[in-house]
Amino acid sequence: MQDMSSSTTADKPATDLHTGWSGRVVGYVAILILVNVMVDTVLAAPTFVLPQLSAAFDTTQFAWIDSSAMLAGAMWAPLLGKSADIYGKRKVLVITLLVAGLGGVVCLLAPHIGIFVLGRALQGAAVAALFLTVAIIRDICAPKFAMIVTGVVTSGSAVFGIPSPFILEVATEVFGWQFVFVVSATFAAVAALCVRLLIPNPRNRTPGKVDVAGALLLGGGLAGVLVYISLGQEFGWLGIVPLASLIGGAVALLVWFFVLSRIPEPVIDIRGISVALGLGLLVVVLGTGAYRSMLQLFSLLIDVSPDDGLGYGIAGPAALGLMFGIPSIGIMLGGILAGAIATRVGPAWPLAAGVVCGTAASFGMFFVGASSLPIAVVCSFMLSLTAGSLVTSGFNLASILAPPERQGTVSSMVMVMVAVGSVTMSFIGSAILGATNIVVGGETVNSSLGVHTYIAVAACAFILAAIPTVFLVRKMRGHVVSGVPMSHI
Asked: Is the residue at 385 inside a domain?
């Protein structure tokens, strides 16, 4: 990995880039937020109905139901990121929205779990929609202003997250779990139309061709390794199917690393990743993974009453809305504050603040929150602050370390880390719960040991994220905001 080159803090932006708020910019931001609302309906909304989905498809593999879209996103991201830099970000964004919408329809009509997972894989294209909105911002806004706008766009969708759990709680009781996917497909169609008609076509493009073979090999390798983590808990870590998945994934990654990553135009140029970007990606994969795993746990905790005597459970009046609605304010505040602070001290410091906040929230859940709804709501709010800060700061860090014509590719790297961390931690948590469940009254339930071990693992992930965070803060000291990329990746 190469080091950062020297940077400045006050380079003058191009005259055709937006440097402040205007009616036109507000319109662009509103549309891009709509895109990210659709992303939330794909990634977050299904967690509200995990118990119903598990019952509908007669499966205990809730991690697959929740994480299959994110897993597919890890495969989609490198290919779509490179394609966006070459063929245009708006065009690729519209395509991803249409594919995600199709996935929602497949999930809605799925007769069994296999077809449902296929639909979730198509919905995984929504993962690319998130980082493409950030890349478009970088093409139409000056560097400093883009940091603020990135915070608003990546976290602004949380405004809709405040009432949506309360609405979904009522709507799913009336219409069933299918309502979630009707909403997702509808948002995807509307967002695709708005982007195509109203968002300008960014001019920054990279001449070249897409390494489809490399993208498929990289994505397939990541998927193979992550599938092993899931299948291992059901078929045994040394079972034939899990080991075949692991070996196949590892071989694919090795071939990509030693062969296809060294061609003239690789899908991701890992040799050009700077030390600072590498550290930032490590923080993102650990921090967002821990947050997503806790989000999955919340959906299970609200289905258990503390009166059941299991040592955990936060079921109560409006528990779903409180756990997933109010903390949406935290995501919005975390993202907006991270973007604003980054214009003064750089993105490394808000990234560090997010890690500290997430660590504190995990400890709160471990000691008290697992069996107390009020404390759990506070911890969920803190974790949401963490999520907003980590995602916004991760994108801001990547954007100032990359040239304009590579924003799609570099932003996709951040999203791959988010996807890998989320899927890995969710499957690890699922394995912990599956290995420690107990039988109460003839019914298999999660044990208190499993729940608290689950939380402890998430806390450890935040603690581990603090290590590269310290080095990143030191590495970025003196580098605030750059009008030009600090490192050409």
From this structure: yes
The answer to whether the beta carbons of residues 198 and 31 sit under 8 Å apart is yes
Tell whether 125 is covered by a domain: yes
Residue 470 counted as domain residue: yes
Length of the chain in terms of residues written? 489
- Lowest mean pLDDT of 43-47, 189-193, 435-439, name the range: 43-47
- Distance between CA 460 and CA 26 in Å, rounded? 40
CB burial class (10 A; 0-12, 13-18, 19+) of residue 55?
Answer: exposed
* 12 domain-assigned: no
Q: Write out pLDDT tens, residues 76-97.
A: 888 888 888 888 889 999 999 9
159 shares a domain with 258? no
Identify the helix (H) or strand (E) that includes residue 397.
helix 373-400
pTM for the model stands at 0.81
**Structural tokens at position 357:** 């906040």
Q: Which domain holds residue 275?
A: 23-210+267-475
Q: pLDDT tens, 139-163?
A: 888 888 988 999 999 888 877 777 7
Distance (Å, rounded) from C-alpha 278 to C-alpha 395?
A: 13
Same domain, 223 and 186: no
Ramachandran class of 51: left when φ > 0, alpha when ψ lies in -120 to 50, beta otherwise: alpha
Rounded Cα–Cα distance for residues 430 and 449 (Å): 13
Q: Per-residue pLDDT for 354 more than 90?
A: yes
- pLDDT at 93 (0 to 100): 93
186 and 226 share one domain: no
Six-digit token pair at 295?
């989000």
In whole angstroms, give the CA distance from residue 229 to residue 425: 10
Q: Are residues 154 and 217 in the same domain?
A: no
